[in-house]
């Protein structure tokens, strides 16, 4: 279903988000999942939806504004100047799920979605206790918790340059493009296991703009100061990162630095578990078997405790 969002604050016309559902037969439950994708991504992972259905959760996934099914002609893919703008569609999606008799929602997010969602949940805890009470937990799959690459990229000087460029011309593309090896390792057309729409998720990714990166860096800064999401969390990541290469792309995270994920996971607040998955890709649920099976096993074990409120595992 389309969720109208009005006019784009970034000036690209009317925008919407798209909420999709998994409809398994004879599944009656108060528990639901809201899945949030990352950058150059949209929801297509039917296997993940089927996993949650088997564990008695109704599954919903949102394609955020200007992403996936919600990307329309004339719009800049995945472009925003402020991650807080996503609060609108996430909150409306939560309301739709609650209206369909689900009283506890597990938020599951990947990569950039793994930064957007804790910021949103922390905001709900501080400003909207009734809606926050609907959220029972948070599962993050390789969340983007810091800017990867050489340390100089994370200095105040570079951050200042990014912010300046974002103010001058937010839609200007950052010169360095994305490597295609990760996308090529996934898609069936290049020998991978997964069939998805390359217009919505191109092998080499969409261009990264200064405006978007500035928004992400401000989100990183807020996370690093410490959040309090107020719900139990599980963070899944690969055991190690490496540079993108044919011999590493299937068994390591070639997109993010897993040391940064480990370092900043404690900033979520509340009870949390961080689990490294040996041999996992950036998206642990798109990894090859047995890494993917290990990730599902870890998630299933966590869900057993999550299913009983108040018994989530300690950090």
From TrEMBL:
Give the matching Pfam families: Abhydrolase_6 (PF12697)
> Which InterPro entries does UniProt cross-reference here?
AB_hydrolase_1, AB_hydrolase_fold
Tell me which residues make up the AB hydrolase-1 domain.
33-288
Instruction: Name the Gene3D superfamilies on file.
Output: alpha/beta hydrolase
Which portions of this protein are annotated as coiled-coil regions? none
Molecular function GO labels: catalytic activity
According to UniProt, the name of this protein is AB hydrolase-1 domain-containing protein
What taxonomic classification does the UniProt entry list for its organism?
Bacteria, Bacillati, Actinomycetota, Actinomycetes, Mycobacteriales
